[in-house]
């Protein structure tokens, strides 16, 4: 993975729309591993479906890449994921560990973010319970 390819990939993430989603074929190998706190896939079409669902379920979702670290055939991206649910703006902070094949396409994508802190604590009801449990710890 060269610097230009990584720059193109991060620009695609930041400008991702339902119309640009089909470009995933440029950036992800057909056989690729994806894992985040809620999903685990092994094919590009599943990742594409996940992104498509994101646009259907959330309002104005977008990624802001804050930092990139490239090393050999891999990279780490530090990002903010901004979106709204029922008009309420939210941000999830996380990072992605990426590995690339010889053609520079993603074959491994692992997202790391704290679902409890970044999501559940911000929800009405359950958020209060989680914050109270943290105080007891």
From TrEMBL:
The organism's place on the tree of life at top rank: Bacteria
Signal peptide (from-to): none
Domain SnoaL-like residue range list: 10-109
This protein's name: SnoaL-like protein
């Amino acid at each position: 993975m060269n610097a230009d390819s990584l720059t193109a990939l991060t620009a695609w993430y930041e400008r991702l729309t339902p119309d640009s989603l089909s470009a995933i074929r440029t950036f992800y190998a057909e056989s690729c591993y994806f894992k985040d706190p809620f999903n685990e896939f092994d094919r590009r079409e599943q990742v594409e479906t996940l992104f498509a669902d994101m646009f259907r379920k959330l309002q104005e979702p977008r990624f802001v890449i804050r930092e990139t670290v490239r090393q050999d055939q891999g990279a780490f991206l530090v990002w903010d994921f901004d979106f709204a649910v029922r008009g309420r703006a939210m941000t999830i902070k996380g990072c992605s560990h990426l590995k690339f094949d010889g053609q520079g396409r993603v074959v491994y994508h692992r997202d790391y973010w704290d679902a409890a802190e970044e999501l559940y604590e911000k929800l009405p009801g359950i958020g209060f319970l989680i914050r109270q449990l943290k105080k007891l710890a």
